[in-house]
Each structure stands twice: as structure tokens, then as C-alpha cells.
Amino acid sequence: MDITKLPNKILNKRVEKVSVDDIKNGSLEELILEMKNAMQEYHGVGLAANQTGRDLSVFIIEPKLAEESNLPEVYINPEITEYSRDDDEMEEGCLSIPDYFIPVKRAKKIKIKFINQRGEKMKLKVKGFAARVLQHETDHLYGLTIKNRK
Questions:
Q1: Which residues of 72-96 are buried (b: 16+ CB within 10 A; e: fewer)?
Q2: Band of the pLDDT at 17, cuts 50, 70, 90?
């Protein structure tokens, strides 16, 4: 699976939400597996479906990060509902923008709601590097990259 790169227009548009029926009937399973393989191949810590050319509100995070942070690997129709006032700045890169790194300011803690791989609604509080990754991947689903984020 190839990684979609700028200036591909799918990276600059808000993606389509996924229906719960599509989640429960397993229609995302092959895509999720392909995304996991691509993320591993390209050494990413997260990957959004539109980074693989798919117009779907899905992202995954690296298994080790998920395990260390006690988080799921798969996020469907995610929405960040709260950002802490406390933030920090860190250099970020993106698989869709090779060899481009820029300091990005992000909240240190977030609250996120999403649907998991089994079709269950979930809400989590996330902090630290994992919160940064979830914010980066959620941005992708809203058509934002580190190049056009305000």
C-alpha cells in the first residue's frame, strides 16, 4: 500500500464518516490490516485512511505506542472533545510530506470520543506523546496537515 502525498487533494478535505453497520460487518478489516502493514513499512507512529487514498474517517496508531499508553490501535469517526490549556511544542513529521519537519504546538492532554473496531462507542482521556499523535491523525481526517495547520 502506498502512502498518499501532498499535493493530493484527499489530504486537504474532510473525510466521510463510517457507518456502524460497515464496522460491525467487517468491511474495514482489510483496510485496517493494510494500514497497519503500511505504517510498519514506512516507520510511522500513526496513519489516517486518507493517507492511503481512502475517504474514510479512520486512523490507527503504532501497536507499541497503543500498548504503552493503554490505548486501542484503531479509531473510527474520532472527535476530540476537549483540549487542555497546557500545551507544548515539538517537531513533527508526516508520512504524506517526506523530509519535512516543523515545530507544532499541541495540547498536552485531550479527551477523544470514537468508535472502536468492534463498533462500540468509546471516550478516553489521553496525555503526553500519545495525545500528540491522536491530534495529528485527527487533523488528517479534517483535511489538515502540518503544512496547513494554523
A1: bbbbbbbebeeeeeeeeeeebbbbb
A2: very high
On the CB side of 129, CA atoms within 13 Å amount to 13
- What pLDDT is stored for residue 149 in this prediction? 79
| Active site residues per annotation | 137
Q: How many helices (H) and strands (E) would you count in the chain?
A: 4, 7
Q: How far apart are CA 4 and CA 2, in angstroms?
A: 6
Which amino acid makes up residue 55?
Answer: D
> Where along the chain do its domains lie?
9-141
| CATH for the 9-141 domain, from 3.90.1150.10, 1.10.10.350, 3.90.45.10, 3.30.70.100 | 3.90.45.10
CA-CA distance, 105 to 103, in Å (whole number)? 7
Phi, psi of 27 (to 5 degrees): -70, -15
